[in-house]
Amino acid sequence: MVETNRLRFPSPVTMIMRAKRTSLYTLVAGIILCTVSYLLGFWHQPTGTIPVTAVSHRHHQPPPCVPLLRSVNSTRLDFSSHHRAELDTPSAGLLPSTAALDTHFPSCAAELSEYTPCEDVKRSLRFSRDRNIYRERQCPTPEEKFRCRIPAPVGYKIPFRWPESRGVAWYDNVPHKELTVEKRVQNWVHYDKKTRRLTFPGGGTMFPRGADAYINDIGKLIDLEDGSIRTAIDTGCGVASWGAYLLSRDILAMSFAPRDSHEAQVQFALERGVPALIGVLASIRLPYPSRAFDMAHCSRCLIPWGKYDGLYLIEVDRVLRPGGYWILSGPPINWQKHWKGWERTKEDLNAEQSEIEAVAKSMCWKKLVQKDDLAIWQKPTNHVHCEKTRKVFKKPRFCQDQDPDGAWYTKMEDCLTPLPKVTDVKEVAGGELAKWPERLNTVPPRISSGSLKGITAKIFHENTKMWKKRVEYYKKYDIQFAERGRYRNVLDMNAFLGGFAAALIDDPVWVMNTVPVEAESNTLGVIYERGLIGTYQN
Predict the structure, then answer these.
(1) What 3-state class would DSSP assign to 531?
(2) Rounded to whole angstroms, how far apart are CA atoms 459 and 276?
(3) For the segment 344-355, what is each residue's pLDDT rounded down to a tens digit?
(4) 182 vs 67, 260, 267, 465, CA distance in Å?
(5) Alpha helices in 138-239 (DSSP H)
(6) Alpha carbon distance 463, 169 (integer Å)
(7) What are the start-end ranges of the E strands in 64-214?
(8) Where are the bilayer-spanning segments (predicted)?
(9) How far is Cα of residue 535 from the mean position of the Cα atoms in its chain?
(10) CA-to-CA distance for 511 and 437, rounded, in angstroms?
(11) pLDDT tens track for 297-319
(12) pLDDT by residue (tens digit) across 43-66?
C-alpha cells in the first residue's frame, strides 16, 4: 500500500540545482529590465541636448566635397504659415520630419571652426587688391563646398548672458589675442590668462575714455534721446563697442568690418551679443536698402572717403535716411592737433579733409558742427534744392533707371541715389517716420504710400498680431526660448515685414532680419522703417 500523505524532501543535489536555476532566471530578468529601461530612456531623450562644452578634440581631415543639391530656381517665396499658432501641442507641425532626422552630416575638421564660406581669408588671396575687392564676399565654387557641420572651437563654453556679455567673453570661444596686444593701450579688449576671459573696457582708437563718454560727447551735438535716431551703421567697427553702448540708449547699430588682419572683429562683437556683419566698402553696395539708417559713423575707419570721386560717401548717402547724420572722428578731423601722432604731414591731412568737405557739399549735405575730434554732417530731407544745384555740381549726377534698394552683388556707382519726389520743400522724402518706440508698430511709409505692391496697412497690422500670437506659442512649446536671457543673437531667415522681431522687442535679444533676394517684394526697407535691422541673403 502506497503512503500518499508522506512528505517528500528533495535531495541536497536537487536543491542546489534549483537554487542555481533561480539565480540564473533572476539575472536574465534583471538584464532584460535594465535594457528595456535604457532603451525607453534613450527613446524619450530629445535630440540636440548634447552640452555645448562637449566639443570633439579629434583632428581629422574634412570630408570630401559633395555637390550640393540643385535648388529650384523660383522667384516666388512662400510666406504663409505652416503651423497654427493657436495650438499648444507638439502636433502643430513644428516637429522635424523623420527624413530630416535620418540625414547625417559629419563634423568638419577642428581647424575649420571659424570657417566662413564666402569670407575665406585664404581663398580671397586669389582676387584683386584694388580697392580691397579681395575682401568682399567671394563664395566657393560647387566643387569647393563642404558637406559637413562647422564645429565649435575646442573648449567652447556657453556665452555670458546679456548684459554681462557686453563686457566679457570666454577666450576659448574666440581664441584670438592679436587685438589684446595691438590695441591694449586703446582699451579695445584685454585677456586674463588666469580666468581665460576676454574683457571689453569699451575703449576705441578715438575714444580712449570709453564708448559711453564718446557717445555722450556726440549727444551734446545732436539729439540721441528724443527717439528720432533709432537705426545706425558703424563702418569699420573694431570690436563694436560704439554699437554696444548705443543699445542702452535704444539705438540699434549695425556694425561691420572686414576679415582682415584683425580677423576676429565681428566674432568679438557677436560673442558680446552686439549686432554685426562681416563687410567692407570696396566695389559692391552694402547689403542694405536705401534710406535705412538714421545715423552713420566712422571712427578712424581708414576708408578713403574723398577718393574715387567720393564713391564711398555716395554709398553712405544711399543708405542714410533723409535728414540722417554722418559722424566722422579720426583722420583727418582735428589734424592740427594730431598730425604728428598720425605720422602724416599737415598738407596731406588738410588735402584729405578738403576732399571730404567737397564731396559732402556736392551731395547737398550740410556740415552741422566740428568740435574737437568730432565732425557731423546732415543729409537733406529732400532733393528739391539739390536738383537745382546740378547745374553747379556736375558730379555726382543723379542715377537713372536704378533700383535704389537693390544691393545684392550690385556694383556701386558714382551717382547720387535720388530721393522720392515731394510736393513741398519742407516735406520729408519718402514719408516722415514716427519716433521710437511708436515707430515699431506704426504703418511704415513704404506701405502707406503704396510703394510695395500687394502689401497694405491691413496686412501689416494682421502680420504684427499674428507674430505676437506665434511667439507666445513658441514660448509655450520651447521652455528655453521662453527663458529670458537664454538666447541673445537671433536670425530670422525669412523676415518679410519683421513681425517676429517686433514680437520679441521686450526680450533681451536682437534679431538679424534677412530678406531673401528671390522674394517677390523687397520688404527690407519696411523692416528698417520700423526701427529694426537686417540684411539681404539668398
Answers:
(1) coil
(2) 30
(3) 999 999 999 999
(4) 41, 14, 17, 49
(5) 178-182, 211-219
(6) 37
(7) 168-170, 190-192, 197-199
(8) 24-43
(9) 8
(10) 16
(11) 999 998 999 999 999 999 999 99
(12) 444 443 334 333 333 344 444 444
The secondary structure of residue 254, as a DSSP letter, is: E
Three-state DSSP at 328 gives strand
308/81 Cα distance (integer angstroms): 47
Q: Which residues on adjacent β-strands are paired with residue 295?
A: 232, 325
CA dihedral 52, 54, 55, 60 (to 10 degrees): -140
DSSP helix/strand/coil, 360: helix
Contacts of 83 (CB under 8 A, 6+ apart): 92, 93, 94
Positions of E strands within 107-226: 168-170, 190-192, 197-199
Whether pLDDT at 21 is above 60:
no
Distance CA 340, CA 402 (A): 44
Query: Considering only CA atoms, which of 202, 203, 193, 188 is closest in space to residue 171?
Result: 193
pLDDT of residue 103: 73
Per-residue pLDDT at 8 exceeds 80: no
Look at residue 60 in the predicted model and tell me its pLDDT.
41
Around 462, how many Cα atoms within 13 Å sit in the side-chain half-sphere?
7
State if pTM tops 0.70.
yes
- Tell which residue, 413, 506, 496, has the closest CA to residue 452: 496
